[in-house]
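Tokens in:
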């Protein structure tokens, strides 16, 4: 009986060393990186200021979630540089109002590529094909009509920033 009691007492200690770890603690960025430059992303689309929304969301996410010192340009000396390019944007009707035939909801899609490199040009992280979507409802009342595409792009930018920073920090 004492032997079984000892086994039950030792079981949690053995299980604690099984090799599992909490998600979000694997850091891909080398320890010598203290500053990250995030210059304004490049916009290869005709969507006005989308690169500014995406860049500011990424800077905000890095500032709130990490201890890195973030620089706004690549001119200043930084340990690493995060560059992004908006490859395409689109806004397409998703559903239609059956009585009027007008669009009832719209889907906005943004395609991006990003890379994080160190001072020597070594790629620390890259993803050439980020694709983010955001849906919004189109107001049918002309008196209260509000153009919803800009807030949709802002929500999409925040989602992109959260995903990008998580991917970089967690090594995906």
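Residues out:
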């Amino acid at each position: 009986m004492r032997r079984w009691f000892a086994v039950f007492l030792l079981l949690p200690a053995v299980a604690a060393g099984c090799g599992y770890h909490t998600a979000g603690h694997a850091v891909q960025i080398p320890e010598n990186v203290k500053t990250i430059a995030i210059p304004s992303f490049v916009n290869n689309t005709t969507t006005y200021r989308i690169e500014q929304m995406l860049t500011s969301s990424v800077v905000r996410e890095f500032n709130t979630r990490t201890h890195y010192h973030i620089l706004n340009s690549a001119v200043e000396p930084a340990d690493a540089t995060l560059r992004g390019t908006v490859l395409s944007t689109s806004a397409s009707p998703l559903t239609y109002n059956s009585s009027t035939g007008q669009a009832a909801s719209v889907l906005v899609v943004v395609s991006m590529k990003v890379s994080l490199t160190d001072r020597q040009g070594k790629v620390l992280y890259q993803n050439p094909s980020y694709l983010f979507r955001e849906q919004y409802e189109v107001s049918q009342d002309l008196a209260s009509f509000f153009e919803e595409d800009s807030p949709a792009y802002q929500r999409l930018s925040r989602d992109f920033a959260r995903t990008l920073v998580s991917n970089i920090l967690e090594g995906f």
